[in-house]
Amino acid sequence: MKRPLSLTGIPVSPGVAIGRAVLWVSREDSSPKRALEPEEIEPEIERFRKAAEAAVQETESTARHVKERLGAEYAGIFHAHALFLKDRTSLGPIERRFAHERVNAEWAVAATTADLMARFRSLPDEDFAHNAADIDDVGRVLKRHLGGEENSRLRMEDLAGEAIVLVADELTPSDAVRIPRDRVVAFVTERGGRTSHAAILARSFGLPAVVGVPQLLAEVGEGDRVVVDGRDGLVWREPSEDVVAFFRERRNQEARREISLKERSLGGITRTRDGAEVAVRANIELLSEIGDVVEYGADGVGLFRSEFLYLSKEGVEFPSEEEQAAAYREILEGLAPRPVVIRTYDLGGKKGARHLVGSDESNPVLGLRGVRLCFARPEMFSTQLRALLAAAAGGNLRLLVPMVSGVEEIRRVRTLLKKAREDVLERGISVPDDIPLGAMIEVPSAAMTADLLAPEVDFLSLGTNDLIQYTLAVDRANETVSDLFRPTHPAVLRLVARVAEAARTAQKPLSVCGEMAADPALVILFLGLGIREFSMGPRTVPMMKEFLRGISTQDAERVARAALSLSTADEVSTFLAQELRDLAGDGAPRTAMRA
Question: Above 90 in pLDDT, residue 569?
């Protein structure tokens, strides 16, 4: 019998699961490398193209199935695969092998996808590195339609009736959507990261998951008893009965606590211990998440990422004005009278839309993105503005402009809004007189001139992830410098304090959205700076509301003053972590900061 062993990886989907390990195995392509005669090359190309057409049909069918189960965003993963399979530029390297190396299609597909996967995995940018799994997925589908045997399968025959933990080197998106969820309670992989598509799908399924576990396949075998802790990134092999009992109790406690917090979250206005009113809203990107906003008691939507209406759509065309208006109306009416902040298209950078930019940018994060891209494509932007205004009467709409760098951009947006309003009114559609317009503060220039921006808008919103990235010149997806991505860096905190002061002076609401808004230690600091609106994932709302009820603004102001006097990110992190323990006691929620 194997001894108990604890492994550590990257937590990507919270929860506790206990089950038996089943290896997710792939049957390797059994077709050997075969040399082609000159007269065989053209027929082989034709055979390959027919296989590619069949692969497109299968992938689009998968996309439709996923859209029904999970929504358009997740279907977009497979629409992207289908586009790859349709693209002659993408498939060109495979076909060139026929002519240059005179090899059969199965071998050409295997060799080309292996090369591409190796290149992606060598990239320092984590987001791109995880695309290797998508390339693997596309290659498998192609080989299957060429008559190969490559296909993932589960060996569950000997584990009838038991809960299953999938253990794999890596899961492709197709693997993830084929997981038999009536039996599988969690998955663990040796490769992957927080932004991999399999991780995203795990969160959508509500399956605990840990990825990036070193030596996983060397240590965990078929049938081993496994405990998966998706909150802390722990994987136990053959745990003792005491460990199993501990995690079972924690799982039960978390379930009971979640039910209790959800019930309390529905109880109306959230007030701090000394009576200050705080709004806790939800960040969403899919219409299917409207129900989550209500279920978890959020005080409306603090950020609806409208670009997903485009990113989840098949092809490269934007949704029509009518399609957009229907979507905006659905969310506004579904949540009325709660406020709904809809961010205008935040595309460019690493968020697709390369065909809109017009060329590959050497540094897209500093290029044509957010409101800059909207200005460069005025008809696209005007269409969205008209759709938003046409839907506005259905609820409590607030508009948020991303990537603002100065006052002139807000004034230009107001000019376009005025023209869009005239167009909509001419059609006989009623538009509310006063639709609040906000600026997203996520670049240092906007933070430094917040005192100039605040009088020009109706509210401000701190986009903390980008603000940290641009302030510290750190790409958090780049593993070589990701340790420098510190929310507690004094420069970041001073910019936040500056924005808070500008909002307070102009008497304009200021909200914080992004990961910092969901970190209890940082929320104490924000509360102390006078910020009273926070926006986060819907499932985090009940915990944050409960936490805020136990904090006083006086304590928070003391913490903020002290934190702003410290010199390093480590000093601030250590100080805030200690204050969190002192103020919230043993029941303090977890902080994401590194202390």
Answer: yes
Per-residue pLDDT tens over the stretch 119-153: 766 665 555 555 677 787 788 788 878 875 444 44
The answer to whether 364 and 410 have CB atoms below 8 angstroms apart is no
Q: Cα-Cα-Cα-Cα dihedral of 148, 107, 26, 79, to 10°?
A: -80
Q: CA 400, CA 326: separation in Å to the nearest integer?
A: 19
pLDDT of residue 369: 84
**DSSP annotation of 103:** B
Cis peptide bond upstream of 337, omega within 30: yes
- Beta strand 209-211 with 184-189 is parallel
The DSSP code for 238 is S
Give pLDDT tens digits for 178-219.
Answer: 677 778 899 899 887 776 667 776 776 778 999 989 999 889
Q: How many residues does the chain have?
A: 595
Contact 464, 513 (CB under 8 A): yes
What pLDDT score was predicted for residue 45? 84
DSSP state at residue 351: B
Let me know: does 351 contact 311? Beta carbons within 8 Å.
Answer: yes
Q: 277 phi and psi, to 5 degrees?
A: -85, 130
Cβ burial of 333 (10 Å; 0-12, 13-18, 19+) is middle
The SS3 of residue 394 is helix
Return contacts of 101-105, CB within 8 angstroms, 24+ apart.
102/35, 102/36, 102/37, 102/38, 102/41, 103/33, 103/34, 103/35, 103/36, 104/31, 104/33, 104/34, 104/36, 104/44, 105/44, 105/47, 105/48, 105/51, 105/146
The kind and range of the H/E element at 209 are strand 209-211
79 classed as catalytic: no
Separation CA 224–CA 7 (nearest Å): 14
β-strands 437-441, 396-401 pairing: parallel
Confidence (pLDDT) at 358:
57
pTM value is 0.68
Catalytic residue list contains 197:
yes
What pLDDT does 151 receive? 45
Identify the active-site residue in 81, 197, 374, 489.
197
Residues 6+ apart with CB under 8 A from 231: 11, 14, 15, 16, 590
Any idea which of 52-61, 272-281, 579-588 has the lowest mean pLDDT? 579-588
Give the pLDDT confidence of 320-371 residue by residue, as tens digits. 999 999 999 999 999 999 999 999 999 876 555 555 655 566 666 677 788 9
Contact 516, 534 (CB under 8 A): no
Give the chain's end-to-end CA distance (angstroms, integer): 39
pLDDT at residue 495 is higher than 90: yes
Strands, DSSP E only, in 419-531? 437-441, 459-463, 510-513
pLDDT of 102 higher than 80 = yes
Distance CA 212, CA 228 (A): 13
Mean pLDDT for the stretch of residues 429-452: 96
Burial of 528 (0-12, 13-18, 19+ CB in 10 A): buried
Report the sign of the C-alpha dihedral through residues 229, 171, 73, 483, in that order. positive
Phi/psi at 348 (nearest 5 deg)? 95, -170
- What's the rounded Cα separation, in Å, for the pair 369 and 403? 7
